[in-house]
Amino acid sequence: MTTRRLTVFILLLLVPVTVLGETLCASDALDRNVCLPGPATRIVSLSPGATELLFSAGAGDLVVAVSAWSDYPPQAEQLPRVGDSSRLDLEAILALAPDLVVAWVDGNSRQQLDRLAQLGVTVFWLAPREFEHIPQAIEDLSVLTGTPATGVAQAELFRNDLIELEENYAEASLIRVFYQVWDQPLMTINRDELIGKAIELCGGVNVFGHLPRLVPRISTEAVLEAAPEVIVTSGRQESDRQWLEDWTAFASLPAVAAGNLYLEPPDLLARPTLRMLDGVKHLCQTLETARARL
């Protein structure tokens, strides 16, 4: 039995002890030790990513409300909405009497969530910045919701698939990538953002990876100077290609000359959940196609 498998086996043996203990604790993204007297039974999720992670942790049946845009898995679309990243309906949340609220550092108001905490609601913050943070979040949520067996199993599958993906592209030839996340103002991501890490895993060189902000604003001139060999953005349909089509006006760009303008599935890469590996695989295949055109 490998060390990794042995570790999982030991963790699974400890599951009944953890669940039956008086207190369940996990460390959140704010480095707080969040504890509950027993497994959560009424959960409010305040971001689409948190919703997915809760379902992956085996706690989907315990979620009583979600935020706007929580559309996966399909069951989440049937749940009541209690606001979005701009504003939460605190009265609606309190009326649901949740024993756990799962928030997103980059998407929710700290002031509003601090108010909920002052009113006695337990808040657990998520902020995946590394691939490892995704399975860790699932394990932490599964502890707080009394479903650790599911959390451990799902997390281990993710880690194994990630290792295989890293090995597959470890020797990929480097290719210069510009990932566009918005057009007006023109915005991209740096190497610390999780999509930036996906680009590197696939053998891409993020031409704006060095910038200090996670989602920096840039200029058209900066893109022309960076001379990317691939330009990527997110979208589902041909109508979403307009941002890419706009770059065809600059025939001197290597990406334009090679026809390397690509749409990636938006939800897969944008949400740090189990499905992100599917998004990374798709991106890696895109960059393989782009290499063949240079």
UniProtKB/TrEMBL annotation:
**Fe/B12 periplasmic-binding domain spans which residues?**
42-291
Annotated GO biological process: cellular response to iron ion
Kindly give the Gene3D superfamilies that the UniProt entry links to this protein: Nitrogenase molybdenum iron protein domain
**UniProt cross-references to InterPro entries, sorted A to Z:** ABC_Transporter_SBP, ABC_transptr_periplasmic_BD, Vit_B12_bind_prot
- Supply the CDD domains for this chain: BtuF (cd01144)
Q: Which UniProt keywords apply?
A: Signal
Q: What name is this protein filed under?
A: Iron complex transport system substrate-binding protein
Q: Give the species this sequence originates from.
A: Marinobacter excellens HL-55
